[in-house]
Amino acid sequence: MITAIPMKAENISNHFSKADEVLFINDQAQVVGRFTNPALLDGCEGKQQLVSLILAQGANRVIIRNIGQQLLSKLLNQNLSVFHTKNGRTELQHFAAAVLSDCEQYTQASQGRTSVKHIAKQANSGCCDHADGEAGCHSGPEAKRCCETKAGAESAMMKPCCNKKHSLMHQH
Questions:
Q1: 30 to 18, 21, 49, 97, 123: CA distances (angstroms)
Q2: Of 4, 67, 88, 99, which is most buried by a Cβ count within 10 Å?
């Protein structure tokens, strides 16, 4: 079993996506990987890269202290076991055990923290200044967000769905 642990210095990070790095340990508490956290610089895309990193390293479970509902939902949707620890100074060997007696298992996204940024984006009709349900942009099974762009800005940083939609919006 591989366990992913977000680290800040030599302690478990207080906030999952703000960890300096992610440490991966096996069931003998041996470090099998240590990676810089991709979520630090890349906004929404970085958080998705963080989930991808955890999956690529073969992790079965994730240890957290605090996590937002959106990111918790992404982890749970990937069938990862997510465990909340109250103490960031717990010895790593503790997290290698098959049973994590001092940790609460999170099974629902609602157990995470409400994201103030996410609420603000929703209040502003989404991150790229148009409604989530607008046809051709943020609807359907392939829907993606363009969170790392500023409202109204058109650039190569936008997701493909928004580039297409915005280019159609500006053709007269």
A1: 23, 16, 24, 12, 45
A2: 4
Cα atoms found within 13 Å of the Cα of residue 8, Cβ hemisphere only: 14
C-alpha span between 172 and 157 (Å, rounded): 24
Instruction: Report whether 114 contacts 69 (CB < 8 A).
Output: yes
Mean pLDDT (10-residue bins), the chain, 172 residues: 94 93 96 95 86 97 94 96 91 88 93 76 56 45 45 42 42 42
140 near 164, Cβ under 8 Å?
no
pLDDT at position 114, please?
Answer: 85
Say if residues 80 and 107 touch (Cβ distance below 8 Å).
Answer: no
Given this model, what pLDDT does residue 132 score? 44
Three-state SS letters, 54-100: HHHCCCCEEEECCCEHHHHHHHHHCCCEEEECCCCCCCHHHHHCCCC
Model confidence, pTM:
0.69
CA–chain centroid gap for 50, Å, is 6
